Amino acid sequence: PNKSELMRLVHSFEEKENDDEKNVIVDNDDDDDDGLEKVIQYAKILQKHGANNVLVTLGSAGSILIPSNNNAQDVIYQKACNLPPNTSVVDETGAGDCYRAAFAVALTDQTKSIQECMKFASAAGALAVTKEGAVPSVPTRKEVEELYRAAFFGDDGEEEEEEEDEKEEENMGEFIEEEELMEEEEIAESIATSLPRGGDDNNNSNDNDDDDDCPLLFGSRLNSMKDRPDLCPASSSLTNVRDWIKRQGTISGLNVVDFNYPQHFHTFTSNEEARQALEEQNLVAGAVC
C-alpha cells in the first residue's frame, strides 16, 4: 500500500480493538519527521493481523519494506528514483501501480536482490509521473531498465545489459526444457469451465457462452463504475457498491471484478454477502487491493 492506504487499513483493524490502543494510533496520525518510524509501526500492526512482508510506497520520499521477522535491522529503505533528464512531474496517477508491477517483475529475476527490485520499481514509478493518465503513463520494460541503470548504476551499463539479456534467454530455455507445459486446449478448457463469463447481460438474447472457449479472463476495477457515471444509462443508479456490481454485470465478456479494501466492503456485512452479490451478476472477485 501507499502510506495513506496503510493508515486506513490500520485504523480499520484498530476500530475492533480496545479504545486505548486505537487512540495511540490515531493521535500519531500526522506529518512530521518521524514518518518512517510511524510507517514501520503501522506495518507491524498489519503483520499482527496476518500480513507478512509489508512494502509501502512513500511517493517522492521513496519506499520501505518491513519484513515479517520484525527485525529492525532487516528493514529496507529505498529513496525515490530521480526523474529522467528534461522531465517533470505531470500526473502521479498510476505511479504506485507501476511501482508494484515493476517490483513483481523484478522479483522474477533471481539475480536481483530485494533492494535492487525496489530500485527497479522506483524507476518505473518515476517514469509514470512524467506522463498524464493512468494507462498512457505505464512505461515499457526497456524504458524502466534504461532509467534503472542510468539512475542507480551510471550510464555505462550497456555491456552489463547485453550479458544479462543473454543470461535471461539461457535461463528461459532451461526453464522451458525442464517444465511440463499444459497443451493450449487444456489451458482453454480449464479456464473457460472454471469461471463464469459474460456478466448478467440479460438484454442479450444471443447467448454464446456455451461456445466460448477463450483462454483469457477479462477483469475491471469496481471503481471504473464509480468514476465514470457518464457511461451508464440515465436510468441506472450508481450510489453504492451493489449498484456498481450490477453495472459490471451488464458488460458482455466480463469475468472478474477487482475490489479495493476496505473501501468497497463497508456495504457488506460479510465476505459471503459480497460473493453472493457477484454471483447474482455471474461474476467473481479478482484482486482485492
Layout of helices and strands:
Elements: H1 3-14, H2 19-27, H3 35-48, E1 54-57, E2 63-66, E3 76-78, H4 95-107, H5 114-128, H6 141-153, H7 158-178, H8 184-194, E4 219-221, H9 223-227, H10 241-248, E5 256-259, H11 271-280, E6 284-288
Helix pairs in contact: 1-3, 4-5, 5-6
Structure description:
With 289 residues, the chain is mainly alpha-helical. The chain is built from 11 helices and 6 strands. A 3-stranded antiparallel sheet has the order 1-2-3, sandwiched between helices. The protein has a 3-stranded parallel sheet with strand order 4-5-6. Residues 18-33, 175-185 and 191-210 have low confidence and may be disordered.
What is the gyration radius calculated from CA atoms? Answer: 22 Å
Structural class designation: mainly alpha
Shape: globular
Strand order of the largest sheet: 1-2-3
Number of β-strand runs: 6
Reading the helices and strands in chain order gives: HHHEEEHHHHHEHHEHE
Short description:
The chain is mainly α. The chain contains 11 helices and 6 strands.
Which terms summarize this structure?
mainly alpha; three-stranded parallel sheet; 289 residues; globular; 8% strand
